[in-house]
Amino acid sequence: MEGFYLTLLYMFVKFIYLLQAITQFVLLNSFLGTDYTFWGFEILRDLANGREWQESGHFPRVTMCDFDVRVLGNKHRHTVQCVLMINMFNEKVYLFLWWWILLVIVATIASLIYWYCMSFLETQQYSFIAQYLRVYGLLDGQAHNVLEHFINRCLRKDGIFILRIIAANAGDLITTDIVAALWKNYLDDEKKRAVLSPSPPPPPALTHPMASKLDEIDAADSFHEEFLH
């Protein structure tokens, strides 16, 4: 997990948000206890089909109420029709909550997919850093391999993630300055490392005992040919 611990932690938190929103959505549907799987959609469909709001609701608006009236010492029970005004308000509140939680679920899924692509696709990482380096003209046609090494070995996924957070909250101007400073420091470190690292030694000479014999034979042959001439 070296280099992408913070990114994975951020993705995990978003997954917890998604799980929490889905749990609330399921509990709300279970609490409503209707035959509609997608209660909010069905309410809007009923209204679109011409059903009146009073008929399409699942909260009882009208019920029968029993009450007693005492007349001349005698108790008379009356059953009349009552209107439950509070349920008309409650249904609108739950309809709003249903659509709000659904919107939160969709937005969280979209955000989770977006950050996954931005954090783990190499093309997105490369283009994100390259766009800031081109502002100062620090990226030429021969620096692509160096940029790839800068992203994979220096910044890594957590570094790019932090830069994206800075860009989202502080703006592109500050992010450009930070990326340019990191790039220059990286190039300076690479130059120092190249200077400090010793050059590879030349290949060792042939030290086998037969090598000296072969050299003596070659020298003798050349001397013999010169003497004959």
UniProtKB/TrEMBL annotation:
Coiled coil: none
Alphabetical GO biological process terms: monoatomic ion transmembrane transport
Signal peptide positions (record): none
Membrane topology, as annotated: Multi-pass membrane protein
Keywords: Cell junction, Cell membrane, Gap junction, Ion channel, Ion transport, Membrane, Transmembrane, Transmembrane helix, Transport
Pfam families: Innexin
Single Gene Ontology MF annotation: gap junction channel activity
Transmembrane regions listed in the UniProt entry: 12-32, 97-117
Subcellular localization: Cell junction, Gap junction; Cell membrane
Source organism superkingdom: Eukaryota
GO cellular component: a single term: gap junction
PANTHER family in alphabetical order: INNEXIN
Its job: Structural component of the gap junctions.
Family per record: Belongs to the pannexin family.
Protein name (Swiss-Prot/TrEMBL): Innexin
Species assigned in the record: Brugia timori
